[in-house]
Amino acid sequence: MDWTSLFGPAVVAAGVSGFISIVSMIISARAARQLHSDKLQFDREQTQRKIESDISLAERKFQADQDLAERKLSFDKLIAERKFRYDTDLHDHQRRVELAEQALTAVHEAKGALRFALIPARFDVEYSTRKSQAEESIIQQNNRDFYFLPIQRLIPYDELFSKFYSLSFAFIAHFGEAAGEPFEEIFRVHQEIITSAKILVDTVPGGEDEYQNWSHMNEPLRSTLGWGPVVQNRDKL
After folding, report:
1. Alpha-carbon distance 34 to 46, whole Å?
2. How far, in Å, are 72, 97, 103, 167 from residue 172 at the CA level?
3. pTM of the predicted model over 0.70
4. What pLDDT is recorded for position 115?
């Protein structure tokens, strides 16, 4: 019996089987590598998409935050401007009210001082602070002291009229030129009183006969003080 006839087909079959196994292993390995490569590619693509998505989301969030910050800044600026205008208007209103109260008080005080200065009589407690001259007669000295009374009575109010003068500028600045007319009228009366009294003191004569003629000639000045036949400033106050 020939043993080779028996082993030949078996060897061939085993070789074919081994070849098929080897081919199968190669195919399986290639398939596994391809699958692994495809998975890696998919993972890379997914990672790239996620990165791009995160970047896009971050950019949109940044833009949204920036827009929100700009809107908040604009809103805060608008609120600050409105608050500033409100505070300014409130301050101006309070300042006007304060000036009006000060002006009202100052006007009444000034008018009271002027009325007191124009009283055509000397009180017992009033003594002349005018320095008399050696050549004055008794009549002339008494007359000069009498006409000096308005000046003497206004001296204690110098500070009042100084503040009154300063207040007029602030009052006009807030209320306009027309609002300064009462101040100007009081200034005018004040100056007229001082000027008229000084002229009368300087020019009053020492004799009775001369005084009568002088008094007639200076009626306008005496009337300015409210001491003449025509009363001017005292009734206006």
Report:
1. 18
2. 42, 13, 11, 9
3. no
4. 92
